[in-house]
Structures are given as C-alpha cells and as structure tokens.
Design goal:
The chain is an alpha+beta fold. 37% of the residues lie in helices and 23% in strands. The strands form two sheets. The chain has a five-stranded antiparallel sheet. A five-stranded antiparallel sheet has the order 2-3-4-5-8. A hairpin with a 2-residue loop joins strand 6 and strand 7.
C-alpha cells in the first residue's frame, strides 16, 4: 500500500510538473519579452505570475498607420487551462483583421464563447486601446480595470467580460492624450493583493503608485501580498512629431 501510494504520488507530481512546463511554454506566447516602442510611444511592462503560470495576457501591436494597439486581459481560472484559454484569445487577436477596439472585443467574445474556435470554458476580462500618433485614443472595455492616466483612473462605461453573452456589442470611448501623458494598464492582481492582516492593496494605493514605472507598481503590489497574477503595462506618449512642429514657435 505504501509503495502504491508512493508511485501514485510520484506520477501525480510528474504530471503536474509536465503541465506547468507546458503552461510556461504557452505563457511565453502571451507575455511579450520585447515591446515595440517607437518615437511616438515608449512602452514598459511587468508580469509577475502567482503560481508559475496564469491567465493574464497582454499584447502591444504596432499597426501600419503608426498607431499602437494595446490589449490587456485576464482569463478566469488558474494553471494550464487558464493559460491555454488565454493563448486561444491571443492567437485569435493576432489573426484579427479589424483593429477597431470595439470590433476586436466583439470577435474575441465569440472566440471565448466557442462560436469560432471550439468550446472554451470560463470568461475573460479584456481591455483594448488603439492609440494614434496624434494622441487620439479609442478604447473599449470588457469588464477589465480601467487604465490610469497620469495618476488618475479614467472613467469608462462598464461592460460585460468576454464569454458571457453571445453576439454582444461593445461600446468605445475616445480620449485625447497630451505629449508627456503616461497610461497604465493593469490586471486585478494589483488591486487584489492582500497583506497578512487581510487588507487589500485596493484602488487608493493603486492610484498612489499609478504614475510610477510598470515594474515598480508590480513589485509594490507583490511585496504587499500577491494573491493573483500581476500584470502592468505602461505607455508613455512621447509625441516627438508634435514637439518637432512646435519647436520653431517655442524658440521665438
């Protein structure tokens, strides 16, 4: 009996290790190691998984018109299943023909429901923003945390996460960024960090650090008491072309 239990436990441990290794391979596709910064946008990110692998994902895709598409999401669940579901969404995103945020979310919603890519259990929050060199930002939100702009949470209409209702139409909002603005996109692992006393890191602390570099925000939440994957993506709007146009006037 002891031998049987030993063998059984060893097999379970091997299976678990294999699952974690497979999930890490998948995770590498979900979390870019290099971000496509250019003279208009400077990007920075931090990703701190809670248990080796998780359901957070983000993508930063430069488009032909020099705009940047930022997508940040969080799939429900843990481990390999969550990572596989997130990879399905990222795969669909990379094959997406439209780059309009509301349409992107509508299509990803159908993917999450399994309408176009087999049955996927669960749901996902997701934020999609397209930022143009002019500073115009079009953004749509599927139940995700709103981004922060220069230390303040941006007000957005709430919408349902992906995978809840079939054929859901998402709304979009338009904002105008100013040169020097910093945007922070994050997952709820920051807000929901919990210390030994049971206190949440919460929205007030998140706002206090929301204008800091991505890694600083992530590590601050982690030290407070990480309970979930932590993802932070920072975008600095440099708008060098705008500054160049204004320089002669400024010189006078």
């Amino acid at each position: 009996m002891i031998l049987y239990r030993f063998v059984h436990v060893s097999q379970e441990e091997q299976r678990s290790a294999a699952e974690i290794e497979a999930a890490r391979s998948v995770q590498a596709l979900l979390i870019p190691t290099q971000l496509p910064s250019n003279h208009n946008f400077m990007l920075d990110s931090a990703y701190l998984p809670a248990n080796g692998v998780g359901g957070d994902f983000f993508q930063a895709l430069p488009l032909k018109d020099d705009s940047m598409l930022i997508v940040v999401g969080d799939v429900s669940g843990k481990g390999l299943q969550a990572a596989m579901n997130a990879s399905t969404l990222v795969g669909a995103l990379r094959n997406e023909l439209s780059h309009e945020p509301a349409i992107v979310l509508r299509h990803l919603n159908q993917v999450m429901l399994g309408a176009t890519s087999g049955a996927i259990a669960g749901f996902a929050t997701c934020l999609c923003a397209r930022i143009y060199p002019s500073g115009e930002m079009v953004i749509a939100n599927a139940g995700h945390l709103s981004p922060y702009r220069d230390g303040r949470e941006m007000e957005m209409e709430p919408s349902l996460p992906l995978g809840i209702i079939n054929n859901l139409e998402y709304d979009h909002a338009t904002f105008q960024l100013n040169p020097g603005d910093r945007l922070i996109f994050l997952s709820d692992g920051v807000v929901e960090a919990t210390n030994a006393k049971g206190e949440l890191f919460g929205f007030e602390r998140t706002q206090q650090v929301s204008n800091e570099p991505a890694r600083y925000i992530a590590q601050t939440a982690q030290r407070f008491g990480q309970t979930d994957d932590i993802t932070v993506v920072s975008l600095y709007f440099a708008a060098s072309s705008v500054r160049t146009e204004k320089q002669p006037t400024h010189a006078h």
